[in-house]
Amino acid sequence: MNDTAPDTTLWADLDSPYALQPAQIEAFRRDGCIKLQQVLSPATLAHFGREITQLTIDLNTESRPLEERSTYDRAFLQVMNLWEQSALVARFVMGQRLARIAAELLQVRGVRLYHDQSLYKEPGGGITPAHADQYYWPLASDRTITAWIPLQAVPAEMGPLGFYAGSQGVAFGRDLGISDESEAKISENMARHGFPFEVGPFELGEVSFHLGWTFHKAGANVSDRPRSVMTVIYMDADMRLVPALNAIQANDRDQWCPGAREGEVIATRKNPVIWSR
């Protein structure tokens, strides 16, 4: 476990409230996604980002060349629940600022952790196909939200995340995992029904939030630099477990909600409440 002496400036950046405006909450309710500027300082991102990126590289098990991987495996290297590997990363994941934003956007009394996930798109890494995250989650309601936190600026050539605004109510495509099929079918359906695809660069300190059922995707990293991103997935503090609909949801249940019972609130040791009113 790697940790450093507390830095009160960084701690305040992680925990102090963010001035979320009513219009932004309404925009999120309508669109199922939002990008917020200056959420975390460059110093905070650099301090915690070094640890997150190094752990992702060290713990990653993918060693094949890009050309030998599937579309899914070319999209990014990923490692989950880094908060369990490092006290420093745990401090980041348990930060009050991001969790409070998540709760206010969801309009719930509080949020607990589902899991964290680092996403490292290598130079030359492929697209992240269109999908909705909640396909993977055995959760009872749509009160789930992902904070997508770039650890550096993400210009267009590095593959920033983009969203189909307003798509969170669309049922088509909810049974498709990340794949060539999901990219083709979901993208075509979104275009046919006129859902705008909103994508653009991320400035350093900009963070996006999206609902579990909002469809989204990212472009390839055609730059010569890696795109390092940390994500934290929050759920309503009162979220209940439901029966798994597929083997992937069963695996998620066992990995991220150990000991939770169907029909009951997911209050396990891996799912602490991070912020509540």
CATH architectural grouping: Sandwich
How many individual domains?
1
**CATH topology (fold) name:** Jelly Rolls
Indicate the overall shape.
globular
Tally of DSSP β-strands: 11
User: Percent range for helical residues?
Assistant: 25-40%
The CATH homologous superfamily name equals: q2cbj1_9rhob like domain
Low-confidence runs of at least 5 consecutive residues = 1-5
Reported for the largest beta sheet, the result is: 7 strands, antiparallel
Element order, helices and strands?
HHEHHEHHEEEEHEEEEHE
Percent strand equals: 15-25%
Count of helices? 8
Q: Kindly, what is the distance between the CA atoms of the first and last residues, rounded to a whole number of angstroms?
A: 31 Å
The CATH class name reads Mainly Beta
Rounded Rg: 18 Å
Secondary-structure class: alpha+beta
Question: Mean pLDDT, nearest integer?
Answer: 95
Protein name: Phytanoyl-CoA dioxygenase
Keywords: Dioxygenase, Oxidoreductase
InterPro entries: Phytyl_CoA_dOase-like (IPR008775)
GO molecular function: 2-oxoglutarate-dependent dioxygenase activity; iron ion binding
Structure description:
This protein has a single domain, classed as q2cbj1_9rhob like domain (Jelly Rolls). The chain is an alpha+beta fold and 277 residues long. It contains eight helices and eleven strands. The protein is globular. It holds the Pfam family PhyH.
